Amino acid sequence: MAYNTFTNEKIIEQFGLTVVTTGLEWRFLQLAGNILYIQHKSYELENLETILGVLYKMVTE
Q1: What is the enclosing helix (H) or strand (E) of 30?
Q2: What are phi and psi of 14, to 5 degrees?
Q3: What is the pLDDT of residue 49?
Q4: What digits encode the pLDDT tens for the residues 2-57?
Q5: Backbone φ and ψ of 12, nearest 5°
Q6: Which of 60, 54, 48 is nearest to 19 (CA)?
Q7: Residue 19 contacts residue 26 (beta carbons within 8 Å)
Q8: Apex CA 23: angle with CA 18 and CA 24, to 5°?
Q9: In 10 A of CB 47, how many CB atoms?
Q10: What integer pLDDT is reported at residue 10 of this predicted model?
């Protein structure tokens, strides 16, 4: 991000959401411009249907 500011290059949003995982625990983040939003709720692997739903939404929007 500092590089983009230094070079006056626009920050391009590739995907609205980003995934951070340990493999057992999943958390979703969103980068909008230069602001990073972190979802407070994390999902355990037991909620696989919810995790797959979020991942599906990421690639279809």
Answers
A1: strand 25-32
A2: -75, -50
A3: 93
A4: 555 666 665 555 556 778 888 889 988 887 777 788 888 889 999 899 989 888 88
A5: -100, 130
A6: 54
A7: yes
A8: 110
A9: 14
A10: 59
